[in-house]
Every structure is written in C-alpha cells, then in structure tokens.
Amino acid sequence: MNVMRWHGSTRERLIEALPEGVVILPVGAIEQHGPHLPTGTDTLIVQAVVEAAVAQAADHSSRQLIITPPVAFGSSDHHLPFGGTLSLTFETFTQVLLDIVRSIAMGGGRRLVIVNGHGGNKGPCHSVAEAAAIRFDLSVGYADYWELFPAEAGGNSPLVPGHAGVFETAMLLALREELVADRPGARAVSELQAMAGITLHSRDRWRRIDGFTDEPGRASAEKGRRWLDACAAALADRLLALAKTL
C-alpha cells in the first residue's frame, strides 16, 4: 500500500517521500466526555477515521500518503471545570501546531492535510492552515471530520454531531465498546445544539447539561460502524482529490 507512518519510518525514507507525498495530521483532544465516555474520545475517533480513509485511498492515490502520530492534546479549556481534561491554551495549541507544521516543511514536506476531531480546535486549526501556507510555502487542506458526514448516512432525520451524545457514543461503541460506561437516560435536546447561523459559547450552559449533548442512550455500535464508514469514505474521496490538486 502507498502508506507511510511517520513514527515508523526512517529519516531516509521520509526525506525521499516528503517532497512529493501528502502528510495527514490528525488532531484530537483529551477532555471530559460526560459520565460515560473516555477522555480520549476525540483522539480515538479522528485517528480511526484517518486510518480507515488512508487505507481506502492509498491504492488509488498518485502520491505517497504519510500519516503523522495524532496530536492528542487540544484546546479544551471550556471543559476544565468538569475535571478529567488535559488542555492547551488557545495560544499554546496554535503554536504547537505551527511548530509541527514548520518541522514538516523543514523536513521536505510540501503538502499537508489537517484532520480535526474536536470542535474547540477549529479556530486554531484554521489559523494554522492559513499561516502555514504563507510562512512555510505549504499547500494545506483542512477538514473537521464530522463536517464530511454525508446527510444520507444519518438515516431519516438530519444528524447534528454533538459532544458525547449519540454520534460520538455510537462511534466509541463501534471502536472500543469496553471503554463506554453506563449511559445517561433520555432528556431534552441541548440548547447548545444548532441555532441557524450562530455558534454559541458559554461555560454556564455546559454546566447545566453536565458536559454532554443530546441523547447518548440512542447510540448503538451498528450506527457507529455505519457512521465511521461514511466519514472515512468521504475523507478518502477528499484525500484522493487533494493528492491531485495540492
């Protein structure tokens, strides 16, 4: 397969592959996910989506696909009051990503795709992608994996991925069921969810909903497998397109 893993490759192989290859950088977080999901949920999911997508794309890619280790720590200060969270400040996280991207460029990399697995990382990731193109002369693609989720994969009703709700809980049931604890019962849909054209930020709201959205009790491993497959297939398509255009 046309796949390399950065941490399993020698410097010689990387020096040879980087100028024409595409580097894929998964970015996650370690943060509270309600009383039922592990703190590494975002990192586990984004790594799984990236691995599956690269495996699908590799045999059809015109370029070597090079996966870096995931950036496990993200910008999660809004979850610190709950405990169980390891967070970098917005500024530190941005600088960490910039330093990683700088290292890729200095090693010979010219094409990068950042795949994000945590909502709190969106601002820094966008900033880093833009700065990297200017500072390091890199061609950079950026995606939040859940934004690639095809509507038809969600069933009869639209699916709005939340935090530690049905979407992420189903993913973890499919990936690592043994890590999922007893799930909270049904309740009203969180007010933190979609309001057309508005993104809400509020520590008080997170406290009122106990740090998780919607209804994790509706999750199942079968749904999770279907949704993981859909996200991975969508990302694989994007990687193939980016390999041709970056």
Automatic annotation (TrEMBL):
SUPFAM superfamilies: Creatininase. The keyword Metal-binding applies. One of its GO terms (biological process) is riboflavin biosynthetic process. One of its GO terms (molecular function) is hydrolase activity, acting on carbon-nitrogen (but not peptide) bonds, in linear amides. Pfam families: Creatininase (PF02633). The keyword ATP-binding does not apply. Keywords: Hydrolase, Metal-binding, Zinc. It comes from the Bacteria. Its cofactor is Zn(2+). Belongs to the creatininase superfamily. PANTHER family: 2-AMINO-5-FORMYLAMINO-6-RIBOSYLAMINOPYRIMIDIN-4(3H)-ONE 5'-MONOPHOSPHATE DEFORMYLASE, 3-DEHYDRO-SCYLLO-INOSOSE HYDROLASE. This is Creatininase. It comes from Actinoalloteichus hymeniacidonis.
